[in-house]
Amino acid sequence: MPELPEVETMRLQLKRFLVGHDIASVEVKNRKTFQGDENKILNSKVMGVRRFGKVLVIDLANGYSILTHVKLTGQFIYRGPNLPKPQELSKKVTGGVPGPHTLVIFNLDRNGTLYYNDVRRFGWIRIEKTEDVEKEKFIIKLGPEPHVAESSAGQALLTLDLFKEILSKTSRAVKVVLMDQEKMGGVGNIYANDALWLSKVNPKTPAKSLDPKSVKKLYEAIITVLKAGIKYGGASELAFVTPDGTEGNYQNHTLVYGHEGEPCERCHKARINKFFLSGRGTYSCPFCQK
Ligand SMILES: [Zn+2]
After folding, report:
1. Residues 134 and 165 in one domain
2. How many domains are there within the chain?
3. Chain centre to alpha carbon of residue 248
4. Fewer Cβ close by (within 10 Å): the C or N end of the chain?
5. 193 & 260 share domain
6. Does the pLDDT of residue 174 top 70, yes or no?
7. Mind telling me which PANTHER family this protein's record contains (predicted)?
8. CA-CA distance, 177 to 139, in Å (whole number)?
9. How confident is the model at residue 154 (pLDDT cuts 50, 70, 90)?
10. How far, in Å, is the centroid of ligand 1 from the Cα of 204?
11. Between helices 4-18 and 212-231, what is the axis angle to 10°?
């Protein structure tokens, strides 16, 4: 599932491509994917794109917003005058655009088009009044998020003090706590693995038994890996593509995630070990993450 860096990458590109476009018409091919009345968003200009956790909010000039969560396999693909140059479509866009998996088409002015493809159809798009967006339950429930990108209004900031407090209250394995989206937002499996390796913390350590120095290192490591994720346009595992139709590149720059059996690049004294923790693939160096 896309994590913070992937969704932030989508936000940055959608903002670059869509702001200034008017929505001319909307073709809804699958009613289950699209909730609300598409007529409410016609002939209105895109003003901005915000992110709340993994939800993107496209704000329009007429007081309505388009909310969307791409879940496992949703893809937004833009074609039109704001693309710097025509990009070859990623092979991860199954069936192309428009194609058999295109569920919604936003026809924009100036020959622009925004396609929504979704093979598994878990993602959703919803039309809502802009003033109601921040009253949404999922936004109120969002855990605080580290400051790695333009902050989203309404979402609390994960400060070092707050991070310490969250960890000090539980004896669950630290990696499991990092990935608990109600405790803190933004850290999914890939980035949790990399942040723990970078800070030399054993993923199984009970959260409250971490010493203050390790907590600080881990906090800083989370920010470092999330920023790297955004820099590389996210990780294109499974179906993730960027709105320009290409792929993110973080999967080629992971520190420990996916490196099972390879020598640890830092200590060169052990090979990366893979095991499962709460059902998720966990990678660590048995020497430097004791
Ligand atoms: Zn090592």
Report:
1. no
2. 2
3. 11
4. C
5. yes
6. yes
7. FORMAMIDOPYRIMIDINE-DNA GLYCOSYLASE
8. 20
9. low
10. 16
11. 40
